[in-house]
Amino acid sequence: MGHNLFIQNALSPPILFFFLGAIAYALKSDFEIPSPLPKLFSLYLLLAIGFKGGIELQKSGFNYPVIPTVIAAILMSLLIPLICFVILRFKFDVFNAAAISAAYGSISAVTFITAESFLESQNIPFDGFMVGALALMESPAIIIGLLLVKFGAPKDRPIKKKMKWGSILHESMLNGSVYLLLGSLLIGFLTSAIDPSDIKKMEPFTGDLFYGAECFFLLDMGIVAAQRLARLNKTGAFLIMFSIFMPILNAVLGSVVAKFLNLDPGNALLFVVLCASASYLAVPTAMRMTVPEARPGYYISTTLGLTFPFNIIIGIPVYMGLVNTMIPQIG
């Protein structure tokens, strides 16, 4: 399965469009996407997966394994930054170690969407409630990262740079992606419960257009990732190794938890991908605002230039094999 799975994933349209964008940058093509469009498509993707997730959540209800899986996802987003921080402190100061740890404790919605497309291409079913886990894993990692700074930073840190907890909680709990995901999830849930006929009206927007929008967004991500990849030589070998091996370690931890929760293969893969992915949008925004001592080049270049492409091209098939190894009775 493994060899064919790699080829099928690498030759899927979203991954090929990702390569197309990366190659355009490498060849110094004048191809570019106007700046408002990637933002629009990212909002569209979040809306669509949130809405569809709400519909599926209404169908499945809040029975097992919904609640324990969501709780486990939140706990993983609290645990992973702490593990990362212990490792990173061998090479980095508190500010950079905490910022990078928060990024790797949080999640990447695009990696999650790519994993969903991978499962659909393999005809492996998964449940919509995993979108809830996606939305709820973003904020705890930010809070843990900032707590690490608060208790680990020098006591003479300038007052003007001290954190305001109201802003921190607002940014971590109500940042744009979390707000749109949870709101769309709730709307999908209510629509399915009150008037399911309205779902049909949304289907051309949230269904048929989704795959093409994902390809277009990954085309832009290929350009951005290639730009970040070109700057990785400034981060050092330790951080480059960390950006590859930490997702793998997190994936192993996630697969152990998925086995304990007795998740089906599709849900297990999504859970593992959430654990293995890293944030390059919400966390950098929060860290820039509250931890200006940390270098964005560290936590953005590694998550976007290396971890993100590694996960969508190589990681997802590897994690699928890991899931099938850890949970052989349902793989």
Automatic annotation (TrEMBL):
Domain of life: Bacteria
Keyword hit for rRNA processing: no
Keywords, sorted A to Z: Membrane, Transmembrane, Transmembrane helix
Pfam families per record: Sbt_1
Record field: transmembrane: 6-27, 67-88, 95-119, 131-153, 174-194, 209-226, 238-261, 267-286, 298-320
Alphabetical list of PANTHER family matching this protein: SLR1512 PROTEIN (PTHR40400)
Protein name: Sodium-dependent bicarbonate transport family permease
Organism, as annotated: Prochlorococcus marinus XMU1408
